[in-house]
Amino acid sequence: MGNSYAGQLQTTRFEEVLHNSIEASLRSNTVVPRPVFSQLYLETEQPIVHNGRTENDDDEYEDGSESNSPPIPYQMKPAPEGCCTTDGFCQGGRDLRLSSIASDPMDVPAGFMLVGVKSPSLPETLLVCAVDCRFLPDERGRNALLGFSGNCMGCGEKGFRYFTEFSNHINLKLSTQPKKQKHLKYHLYRNKQGVLVRGALICWRGHDGRMRQMASSLSESHVTSDEQSATTHASHTPGSYTAGSHVDPISLPHTADVPPSLINGSHAAPAITQPPLNQSGPGRPSATGPPANAGPPKKRHKGWSPESSASTVPENTVKTPPSSSSSSSFSSVVLNGARTEAAAPVSLPKRSSTPVSPPVTVPDQLLHTCRLQPVIFKGHGPLPQLTGNVSEVLVSSLLQSCYLSSQTLPRVYQHYGPSPIQPLSSEMQILLTVYYLVQLGPDQVPLIEDLEQIFMRSWRESHLSEIRQYQQPQTPATQGRHYGIETSSTLPGLPQHLSLPAHSQQPLTPSQLPWLAQLAASSCGEGVLVLGEQVSSLAQGLHQTFNRLMEGQLENTSYVVIIVTTPGQETQSCVVVTGKHQCRALAENMFSPSEGLREINHQLSSGLAQDLIHHCKSLGQDGDMDSLLDNATVDSNQPSPVCSSQESAEEKSLKNTNSPKDTQSPQDSLKQCSKDSPTPKDGHMPSPKDRALSPKDTCSEFRVEWREVRPIQLAVARKLLSHVCAIADSSTQNLDLGSFDRISFLILVPPSEVTFQQTVLHLWSSGVLQELGGLDQDCVSQRDAEYYVVKIDQSAQARITNLIQEAHKNSCTLYIVVHDHAHWDINSASFNSPDSGLGLVDQLLNSRQVMDAPNILILHVTSFPFALQTQYTRISPYNEIHWPSAFSNDVDLYHEKTRYFGVSELLESTRSGSSLPLMRYDSSFENMASVLEERFPKLHSAVIRTTVLIQHYCVALMAASGRITDSHNLHKHTSVETMEIVQSLLTAAQQCSAHHGHMVLLRIPSLALAAWAHRRLSTVRKQLGLEESFEIILGNPNEALNIGQSFIDQLKIWLKIQDADWVPRTYLELEALSCILILSGPEPLGESLPRSLKYCDLRVVSCSYLQRTTLEQELGLAAYLVRAESRPPHNPGPGSDLLESDAEKLSSTDNEEEDGQENGDSPLSSSQQPTQSCPDSGSSEAPPTQNPSSNTTSKGTVDTKQSPSQSQPHLHPQPSSQPSLQHQPQTQPQTQTFPHTQPTSQPQPQPQIHIQIQPLAQPHSQPYTQTLSHHHSLSQLHPQPQPPANARHRPSKSTSSDSLSPRASSPHQSCSWARGVSRPPSVLLPRSLYEIITASDSSGLPRCTSFLPHISVAWASSFRPLLSKMMTCTEQSLYYRQWTVPRSYHMDCSNRTEGRSDNFHPRRLLLSGPPQVGKTGAYLHFLGILSRMLIRLMEVDIYDEEDINYSAQAEGVQYHPPGARWPNPDIMKTMPFDYTIHDPKYDDTSSVYCAGYKPSVEGNPVRQEDVYLCRRTSRIKLSKYAAYNTYHHCEQCHQYLGFNPRYQMYESTLHAFTFSHLLLGEEIQLYFIIPKSKEHYFSFSQPGGQLESMRLPLSSDWSPDCIKSPIFTPTTGRHEHGLFNLYHAMDGASHLHILVVKEYEMAVYKKYWPNHIMLVLPTVFNGAGIGAAHFLIKELSYHNLELERTRRLEGGGPASDVWPFIILSDDSCVMWNAVDLDARNGAAERAVSLKQVLQHMEACPDLAHYGLCGIRKWSSRGLSGNKQREPFSRGYVHDFLLLNVDRSQNVQYDQNRFTCHDIDFTLRVHSAGLLVCQFNGFSVMKKQIAIGGYKTFIIKTKMTDVPTSVGPSQYVCAPDSKHLFLATPAQLLLEKYLQHTSQKLFPLSTKNYTHPVLSVDCYLNLGREVTVCFVSSRPHSVNISTTGLLFSGLLLCFADAFVTPGFLKKFTFLKGATLCVISADRSSLRQTVGRLELEEEWRFRLSDEFQTTNAKEDRPLFFLTGKHI
């Protein structure tokens, strides 16, 4: 710029220019006018041209990177010839570099300052220049003039007026347009040494924020535009905007630009948006779109031509529902006791002390005069004291709190010290508040949430770069899924260009604020008045406001904003609300919910509402309601002249609507003509009792489905169970499921009798009680179920106390406390008196007894979990269970029969263009209510609205009943919506043979109003004689249902209930009953509604308390489970609601404000065309021409009767396509008005809607005639002649398409209930609530989701992001957990521990799901499966197999007396050894020959269930003495498992132990892993030194709490499932337990069992079987016995007294039992501890005489099958052995064996002459463990690790043959081969018991058909007598030196008997044959030699077969 007039305001022209600009803006509708301040601030001048182009003609302040377009190429003017061009020097050749001239003296003129210039060619230094201070911003970024004025500090040249010229002079050599903002970077100053140094940055950041915002506003803009005629634009003024802007002229609002000081340089303020002045309703969208380059004009003020620019605003962003069109207000988050706000003014920081303002006197008769109660919002500064008539003024500090919270920066920005991020200034807050109020519609009430978000958006966009800088260290998150401070894309209700520069530059000065605010207010006419410059104090402003109110000057003003800007003092402000509608809404909002209900009750009880009620009863010219009803009562015996379901032909023709211009007076309306009634002759509908008597009246389509458990409920129940298991499995030890053997539960419900009975009914029918008690369904009554459900009232305390006591006594019972409807009472008990009924949940569930009880689990269940998701919540986010979505990409995940239709689907229906929405508002009702609200200003709006609504219902009943003469005149006194509801209610039951109807829900929160409504409706129903037609039910939460007996009888028939005393106790049991349910109570308390609900009338719900929970739970009443086979409701198609819609719906007055609205502005715009709103219209006919001005949309209900052709075919065969209008006398055009305000003489704020009736043949009536046929055919039940073709042409279209409808497809589907379950109910809302709910925020979510989630919580900060549409339920939970805090009266407020993160209660879960979705059924099923799981946990599968091979045992000699405690060795020696194998697991093994045994002829037939994998088991409950696996961890086990406070967990040491054995051939090294806590069981050479031995007790030692025998448990593959926890089994006794593991499993066993001693087998045994483990255990034990004897001798003790026994226990032994002998009842078993078993056996007096002892294997039939069983037996012992390692020193386990090793060892012990004793008085139970174990070897090939099916015949092969080798131990292959192919190997032995196979020194399984005779070759061995016995074969396995030719010659063989010799290699095989001289009696062939199929390196085994000669 550079002109001398820069910055001089031409005040003489201010008023003229301002007036002209405003006038132009009001007149213009095309383009944006010239900015006002560009006219005022600078004179128009010609731009200076350099190089053929205008200087500074670029429209960006920033460099090209910040622009939306590429940078403009720039060529610097060449330097004059001879000038210096060196970088860092000026053209005069003088050095300008700071580093060079810092110490030089400089002459700086006055008013100039030294500035550092940044040169792109010299990044390391600055150039020094002097710049006029006026063209630089101050430290706060204000007051910089446009242009430039500077001097060169090198050559001294002065007077540079353009920065371009100056940049050339100092040789900047730029490639882009020179900008002072880019290159003038730093202030320079001299330090103490006088050296020039770099100072602070020059703040040009205001441009950064503004330009970024400008760039973003184009891409993010959400513009709401009315029809083009309503969008006001001024005529085009040249020079008003810069060229090149790409802005849609239609989307640009009228803007008035900012004053000069804001335009210049760095102080861009937002443009002011003027909404259209012809707004006609609260939801009228204002043109609030952001102009692309709105804001201050650029430097040259170039002309801006909108015609030449293209719109860059996406089409889908042009529609934004009105966000702030709510009747809720600034005080929407007000607390209880909000009226006391004025008592505690909040002080704001002040620049200086403010003088005390004089008090302000409130005028008398203010309310009477103005008919309103003003509301004063405190803003900045203290409010003056009010005196006088203060009761008629309300004061709120909520706006002040919003200001404060918006100025409190989050902590993240306070950690960095001085920050460039500053909050908004007070001035900017005030200006934004004015902008916000200006754009509100006349009926809109401000929302604090909107204003807060406006502040936040402005702040964020002005600090975008700084915010990103602070966000960089944070973890990057997915877009839309992080919860830091982020920039929201749009703000509801505010133009997007309202973004501001950083506060640090102070974009507004106090002196500029008043006239900026006045300018903004001028754009909305009188709607907002700003008192600024004309007032000097708030007191003066309030005084003026009160005077203007009393004088009537503010009749059209809704808000008065008072601004006081005194120099040197803090700016003060307040807002006075003076609009009638706004004042009423705000005043009612300042009541708490309870106070509001008390006020309503007071107005009713005191008679204040009587005038209103009397007024409503008057019908004007049509008489009085009471007199009309009296006449109807007198004439009630006369036939009904008009059926309740019919309309006259004139009513049918009311469907054609013209523009509101075609209005006529009500007197022009013509009366209707009544027609014959289809009702019975007496004029009465049949009563329910009469209907019930008819045997034919049945409906095949009716069925009750709410008792069924749906698949998704099962899935949720399993999710709950998995979370409980996760708590149990965690390392926190907070829940030990293994310690519980049963569950008990208590369900807490809100104090609603219906909810209580409903829960009881669900519980009783769920079968949970039967599962818990083991009873039949018939044994449990509903009375029994009531014990488990309790209402949260004063009686609940005793139940909870009783539960706590029970939980303390029964530690083995898990108690589940289900807190249903958990969001209801979350008040702190300390903040509420015991009598208030609040805080009970806190008192009961958060008590210390409940919190600390380890066996109480709390489950919160709610549809609205937000109040439980705060920063102080007690529920861990990991313990939240969210209801899953049943559909994913339209794929049914759970195969449901139903589809959930909830709040989101309701909202979707409002956006669907295929049919009328299911959720809508009734504008005629709203108009009448608003008129009466103005007439009765002292009455609460709920009283007025309820009175009007009940009046509508009463009038509709009178009109529909047909008992009122001239009833057609009554239609204008009710709304079309209400008429539709009533007609549908009355006719529904007539359409079904069983008279099924539907329910109408009327929600009236006030109990007093609901009771009055019930009385009024009941009275009118009685007077009209409709008592038997439908029931009227008062739903009082404190009382039980009261239903008429006739209706109860009908319900009993439908529900097939035989109980004579049955009465319905829940709403669910009212299925299909025609009724009006008046649901009262401050909020719904979880009552479920039947599927026959068809209308949900919420027109009188409170709009005052706008929290998300409050809104969603009211809408949740309409949530519904729709039949899945029906079409999704959001895309109804031909089967939409219009098929049953009353024809009046299409001409409803609901949308009169939308007349003339542009298509696309309304959420329903897509359904405005008749062809769209009536989807069943004929497709073959061209769609009618759209008439934008005709009233074609409706929010009315769309749900009524079907045509008689479908619903009553037996009454009327006439096709429904025939209209009756052509046969009525009145066929000429008629008009009828429906005035919706009373009385008609009153002034009406809204124009009446006049509906012109046109004949069907007229062309412009076409849009509506297509839907008429369904309705006017109902009025004809008699045949009529065919109408003319032109009259019936269009109507026939709709009936021809009836076949497309799902409902019409079945001619028999006439039941209203059956049709209803395929479609959710219709919802009627208050208009203000509707507009809030249907509006969306910037993320696409409904506006209500951004509201405060619950009244008991508060936002943690205003600096929070909006919820994202992409957030999952879990992310929403995390959002609320971060951004909400509980208020002081919230029960979680005390749950705060500083610096700790463990505030969560570990046994508390939260189940959340949408309302009415089935949460009760889910958690009841969860209780059932949890109970079953606990039983399952306490039960195990025990092998339950009866002993085999007892059938042929004939001898019954009793050796010991039955009660003998211990065996007698002498007697045991006389007992024969029982060679017969009785263990059922060896059913498929070879029997051992015994001379006295006679096998059964059948043998033991193999049954399918006896195969190993299918062995018989029984479910047995674990006793308290059971052994456990690693999943068990109770508190008693902590120390046992390693939780010893003396030692650190996992602290153990590894010790090597070496010993040698002859059979091993070399020394072998073992390893012991010994925990520190177990080292006392071992002896070491020194502490921590070499392991020497394992300590053994003496035989003489005895302790009642000690087991002397070490317990060895070999195990493999069962580190998790092995039963190694013997703490309970030992009953706490001290014992030594050693796990014997393989080397490769050492680490995993140590991990799971850190406190167990491990014996690690050598590496060579990694592939060995169970025989090797037992072999090593036995030999190691004997070696240790010798070491201990030596140690004892060295210690001077007796060596022979060392205890020589060890226990070999299987890892699946789970419980032990003892037999009790009872003379009367016989033997019985009881569970005993392992301690008792072992101590009893160890106490046996002669135990040392026995080599091997064992106990019986348990069987449920073991005692009953053999009652005289010997208490001790001599035979095989298995699984649990007590081994005497001393006596069995010379008997070894076969280390190579995999199978039958215990049979083999027992035979060896017996043959060695040792006593084997089995204690039959004890039994061991073995648990079936399918995982791991020594039997799980897989036979696989060497080539691959994949198991292959290899037959047993392939286990062996010929030596040296080419064969596919197997990667399986050779011994295992051999054993399996012999087991499966012995029939071929020993053919003579098959099924030949008398000729067994002789097996020498070993027992091998040759299959169940071959008998083996075991003999030992050892000297002095005990063998069976073989005299005279012929053997069918000989088996020699690894024959040692004791086997000699002479030994073999003792035995006789059959001819052809088979010989099998097994050796380790071929050479030893041949040596054995030669040594034993076998070739003398046996013939061998070369082909009879085999080897196992092992590779050579795997050392195969070889065997040779031969035949006896």
Low-confidence stretches: 1-13, 27-70, 207-329, 331-354, 473-506, 636-685, 688-696, 1126-1308, 1499-1508
- What general outline do the C-alpha atoms trace? extended
**Into which percentage range does the β-strand content fall?**
15-25%
Number of DSSP strand runs: 59
Mind telling me the C-alpha Rg? 48 Å
Provide structural commentary.
It is built from 54 helices and 59 strands. The strands form 15 sheets. Strands 39, 40, 43, 44, 45, 46, 47, 48, 49, 50, 51 and 52 form a 12-stranded mixed beta sheet that branches. Helix 9 packs parallel to helix 11 (448-462). The protein starts with 13 loop residues before the first helix and ends with a strand. The N terminus is likely disordered.
What labels would you give this structure?
15% strand, 54 helices, disordered N terminus, 2005 residues, alpha/beta
Topology:
Blueprint: H1 14-27, H2 36-41, E1 49-50, E2 53-54, H3 98-101, E3 112-118, E4 126-132, E5 150-152, H4 163-169, H5 180-183, E6 184-190, E7 196-201, H6 205-220, E8 254-256, H7 260-263, E9 272-274, E10 360-362, H8 366-370, E11 375-378, E12 386-388, E13 394-396, H9 398-406, H10 426-438, H11 448-462, H12 464-471, H13 513-522, E14 528-531, H14 538-551, E15 559-564, E16 572-577, H15 580-589, H16 593-605, H17 610-617, H18 625-634, H19 649-652, H20 688-693, H21 711-729, E17 742-749, H22 753-766, H23 768-773, H24 782-785, E18 789-791, H25 796-809, E19 813-820, H26 840-845, H27 848-852, E20 856-862, E21 880-882, E22 887-888, E23 891-892, E24 898-901, H28 903-911, E25 919-921, H29 923-935, H30 941-961, H31 976-988, E26 999-1003, H32 1007-1023, E27 1031-1035, H33 1045-1054, E28 1075-1079, E29 1093-1097, H34 1108-1115, E30 1120-1123, H35 1170-1173, H36 1204-1207, E31 1230-1233, E32 1250-1253, H37 1262-1265, H38 1269-1272, H39 1285-1288, H40 1291-1296, H41 1312-1316, E33 1322-1325, H42 1327-1334, E34 1353-1355, H43 1369-1379, E35 1380-1382, E36 1404-1408, H44 1415-1434, ...
Parallel strand pairs: 10-12, 11-13, 14-15, 17-18, 17-19, 19-20, 20-36, 21-36, 25-33, 26-28, 26-29, 27-28, 29-33, 43-44, 43-46, 44-45, 49-52, 54-55, 54-56, 56-57
Antiparallel strand pairs: 1-2, 3-4, 3-6, 4-5, 6-7, 8-9, 11-16, 15-16, 22-23, 24-30, 31-32, 34-35, 37-38, 39-40, 40-45, 41-42, 46-51, 47-48, 47-52, 49-51, 50-52, 53-58, 57-59, 58-59
